[in-house]
Amino acid sequence: MRLSNKKGLDIKAFAHYLKVNLLVALAYFVVGKIGLLIALPPGYSAAIWPAAGIAIASCLIWSKYSPWFGILVGSWLININIGGEIHLGWLPLVIAAASSLQAYVSANVIRRIDPLVTLDRPNTVIKSCLSLSLTCMIATLFGNAALAAHGTIPIKDVFGSTINWWLGDLLGAVIFIPLTMLIFDQRSIWRSRRIQTGLPLFVGFLFCVGIYYYSDMNQRQQLQDKFQIQSNAIISNVESFQVSNLQQVIALASLFDNSEQVSQDEFIQFGKRNQLQLDGFRAWAWSPLIAATDKDSFEAATRAEIGESYRIRYLANGQPNPDGWLVPIKFVQPINTSRAALGIDLNGEPTRAAAIAKVRATLSPVMTGKIQLAEDPNGPGGTLFIAPVFDRLGNIKGFCSAVIDLQSIINAVEQVKGLHWRLTDMSAGGALLYANSQKSFPQFQGNIQSDKMGQYYQANLMLADRHWHIVIYESYSELMGDTFSLSLLMLLLAFITCAVVGGMTLVSSGERHRIAEKVAEKTMALSKEIARSQTFQATLIESEQRYRTLFDKAPVGHALKRLEDGQFVAINQAFMDITGYTLEELQTLDPWELTPIRYRVSETEQLERLKQTRRYGPYQKHYRHKGGQMVAVRLNGSLVTAANGEQLILFIVEDITEQERTVARVNLLAQVFQQSGEGITIMDANDIIVDVNSAFTQITGYTRDEIIGKNCRFLEAERTDRSNDARVRAALEQTGFWQGEVWDRHKEGFDFPKWLMMSVVRDETGSVSHYIGSFTDISERKVNEERIHFLAHHDSLTLLPNRLSLQSRLETVFKEAFVSQTQIAVMFIDMDHFKNINDTLGHHVGDMLLLEVARRLKSIVSSDDIVARLGGDEFVVVLSDTDHDEVAKVAEALRSGLNQTYTIDNKPLHSSPSIGISLFPTDGDSVEALMKNADMAMYRAKAAGRNNYQFFTAAMNTLVTERQQIETGLRQAIARDELRLHYQPQIDINTGQMVGVEALIRWQHPE
């Protein structure tokens, strides 16, 4: 089955496929079930199988829908119940596959013989029938082989079943292929034959079936009568056998009734005289009734009487009866096969004991249920007839018993071969006495019951006090034996006659249809010729009018020009609109006034091509409009011949001015796209890259061919934050635009940052059709930003953290120490006499000295500690998680390291450090306090002679505070008028004369 690529047509084609196969499966199943009504026993094949013809016809009519699948399903449904049994294994599937294959092959062979499948000629009908006789063996051979392999039919029946199956499929195909074609083939040849062929075929088929049913019912009645007579004879034989046995046991009991003492010889002679062994007894015995207390004396007396060893025994699991009585077997015959029974206590085994108890209660003969015989423990078993023996006072003195072997009854029943039967003991709740097969027997009323497969017979047997039930079954095939079925012969002859008549009607009706078609074809051709001649003139007029209308009203320009001189002969309104000229104006116009002179060469080439190929263009150029503007046009032309033989050129002219502008605009946009300095990516709605520009290649390293068709995420670097995707999608959906920084990976493997701007392109329905992304590489800008950030937080000379960075880092360290309650130290370091070196030797020497100081600082302290430059020669070191002793060690190391001689420009220089130290939490509870106190301690170190370190103390703070107060007070003294001028004379000691005056300022502080 071929399905279109379009989704809608796929569904429609599949629906047709499913519909046809379901109908074929249903038809095969229904017709097959009807065909099984006339199936031959045991129901594996039918005298005619209409489903075979329907299957082949469906393959001929609906071959494009693969109806073999429907045939497979329908046949499988039928064959899961064949022969009256349910089969769910491989068997029905094999038969169904063979039926489907037969239909497919047969249809293809018929199509080769008659490609049109009309079956309207004698040779095609005969060849088709002969081919069907061969192809219809496919299902026959495979099906019967499968049935034989499965064990459903015996090997001896395979040949007969094969012949019947083949005939049924062949007749079904010959009759029902044309019937199905007549109903479902919609071609005219089959529609026309529905009455002539279809009706006789269908009526003939029904008539054949009627004949079959009539003859089949008669034959089945005869078989039923035969089976009933046969069953009655079997039941009578069994009943007479049992009655005779009961009479013999009673006669044996009478022997003991009439004698005081019966010897073993008399017992043996009675059996021989009455021919007990010939009447079906397995064994007969005498068992006296003995009190349990007399057991030993009885055993001794019996041994003496019979002259051999004797003791009372019990069967397996047997034991003395609690009633206190023993019933041991004293005499038994025939002794050679029943010696094992001597001494067995019948009253010690439950089944026999129950029968003895019933005899003692009823004083009548009793028959036991089924027992396993001691003489034959592995046999089918048997029953016991037990009759009482009386003394002269009427008391029971013992029992005569006879073993009835079930094998004797089996032999009596199975004298008739092929029977299935079951014998049950209804007195024992329906216990099974014997069954010769596993066949299940139905329950039914009356003596006789029949079904499609055979006959059943049941009867109730009353034997002594027991109620037995027997059911007998025999199949029709066994009842018929080797005799031929008259109903089958009549059916085959009727079907063959029907098939022959059907073939003849097919040929005759096909020939009639073919002749009718030829007459209709000739009549139609003549009518068409007359109508054609009548309408020819009108057509010419109408054609000319239509051409004139099409020429004048065409939406594109049409023009006719003479090939010889290029003069316009005719133009339409659209051409006038394009050029602005009328026909009269064009006829007087110089050609190069309409077409610019620059097209001279190309016009010459087009005319040469026209003369060679009779085609002009397609060709694009410009017309100069009557108003002066240029009009872009596309020309297509061909060489035509006028009625007078003149050569004309027919032009079709399209105004493509707007297209030309669009193309120019597209080209401009393409140039902008390619020449843009920004990388541009165009993606479809699924984020697949469809185009990139040159800048994209330069920035990412990927060529256009390498990247087109890949998802845009192919470029993403691992560091890209995927959590932003939802925000980006939302922005694009709401505003159609988003911009931001992302990271991509270059083709060479390194990551680079880019600034990306995304825009949405929507189609006419408002759905997203594309995304456009433009980006620039911001790697250099990022580097510059990082450099600016670094310089903003680091000293430009030493590259150590500057005052701003120190403040931020120290606050972080302070917070951590505050939370963890650990100690930190802040060291202010000032290089002694640095100003002198800087002023005398130059700033470059001072800078080199500072660089060396920074290097020594970083080498002395830990990498986890902070080293910063505040400016000039001032440095700060911050130690975390330390103590007083550790700080002192570091301070001494710094003093010693920075005090070493410096070699700058091959000149030895010396500068020592003055170090002030403050500690958290003892010396301050804030960053500002620690910095201020460390600065105080540093000035204290300088005052102490430099080249030393000083820890901050509270006294330092007091001294500084007092000094600041004095300085502040002095600055405010003038404004407050707190200064007083005093003059003090200077006296010469020798002369006592005043030689001068001292001017003194005294501060009159309010406090």
TrEMBL record:
Cross-referenced SUPFAM superfamilies: EAL domain-like, Nucleotide cyclase, PYP-like sensor domain (PAS domain)
Family matches, as Gene3D superfamilies: 3.30.70.270, CHASE domain (3.30.450.350), EAL domain (3.20.20.450), PAS domain (3.30.450.20)
Keywords, sorted A to Z: Cell membrane, Membrane, Transmembrane, Transmembrane helix
PAC domain location: 738-790
Every PAS domain range: 665-735
Domain GGDEF: 822-954
PROSITE patterns attached to this UniProt entry: CHASE, EAL, GGDEF, PAC, PAS
Localization (cell): Cell membrane
Domain EAL: 963-1007
Membrane topology term: Multi-pass membrane protein
Residues annotated as domain CHASE: 258-416
Transmembrane region(s): 20-40, 46-63, 68-84, 90-110, 130-153, 165-184, 196-214
Main location: membrane
Protein name from the UniProt record: Diguanylate cyclase phosphodiesterase with pas pac and chase sensor
Record organism: Shewanella decolorationis S12
